[in-house]
């Protein structure tokens, strides 16, 4: 009888451990995400800094969380592999810069808003989506952050990295994929790079 | 009244009919999105996202017209609507503008209520009713939103376009409407049945309406729209800054947003 107890206990311990491991990864990510967001909110609210300093600090805090390089590659869809190495390098650099500026300017507009995590979804072993609400006095904005875990960790980056952000169901990456695709239907990569240079 | 009913019914029938053909033309050949065959690790990584990042092709036979209309709307926004809304914004405090926004949201309750019911979303309908009752009374004719701040009753933005989408009606071709911006055939035709439930109207109605003459109607609409623009123009300007090509950018955002709204 005692033996059976032990076996059951051991089995359930293994089962429980396996379960909690999976859950643990999400909890760690959630915690890390919230700490980062707090850090960013602190920067946004610090009145001592000038606007440029603030944006610089926000970018510094956010960069390890985002896989901007992957987003750049994905944004071109099937066309990515047609680029020459020089074009690839140039495009990634421009896209990364564009994303950084876009995020920091948007986040800098936040005032008295807080972030709440509604749920975490793990669709694959290496994908987690955090669905959050950005709550302000007048409205609630649903923002989903999509994370992936690269097989080989990237130096100076977190282990889970954001590769897409969905605001009210609108995916930033998909919108870029669509507009770049349409642009490249009639124009060349070089022209796209020119437009991005002009915008930055 | 009879005339209106017939009009509504024909527009519905038209949407249903069109949706059937549009869903066919939207389908994409699957061979086109096969992952690349090179086996370097970067390609593998990109391939693992291929399925997820496959952008749904939007049915867009009117793209020529749509581009022109997008330019027209953007010019009208930059040179007329935005300057007017900026003046308005400078005169009225944000709290007052929020209240005006709340007021218009509140009087559009019948549209949201009817569409939640049509979709069988009873809990949403109850929540909307609660919001209307509380905000009209305690919230002083809808100027304030105590339903959200004290009773945690959330608004559910439902319209007839979403109701049709809920029952499987496809988007139909994307259409950019003058001044109203991105839409599609289903949503554009749905504006009509929704307007029948709006208390902002100048036609003879069997029930109370806020405006009685065309002049009053245009005045009320102008205030509603100017107020709305004054509240969201900063956001719109920031969104626009990320556009490489404004038309497909706004088009895709609109269709993605509607898809999400219909799923909710």
Please, could you describe this protein's structure?
The complex is a heterodimer of chains A (200) and B (264). Chain A has 200 residues and is α+β, with helices and mostly antiparallel strands. Chain A has a single domain (2-199), classed as Nuclear Transport Factor 2, Chain: A. Chain A has six helices and five strands. Chain A has helices at 2-45, 51-62, 68-75, 85-108, 172-186, 189-199, and strands spanning 114-124, 127-135, 140-148, 161-167, 170-171. A five-stranded antiparallel β-sheet of chain A has the order 1-2-3-4-5. The mean pLDDT of chain A is 85. In chain B, helix 3 (63-91) crosses helix 10 (214-241) and helix 8 packs across helix 9 (185-196). Mean pLDDT of chain B is 84; it is low at 12-39. By secondary structure, chain B is mainly alpha-helical. Helices cover 66% and strands 3% of the residues of chain B. Chain B has one domain (2-25, 58-263). A two-stranded antiparallel ribbon of chain B has the order 1-2. Chain B has eleven helices and two strands.
Tell me briefly what this model is.
The complex is a heterodimer of chains A (200) and B (264). With 200 residues, chain A is an alpha+beta fold.
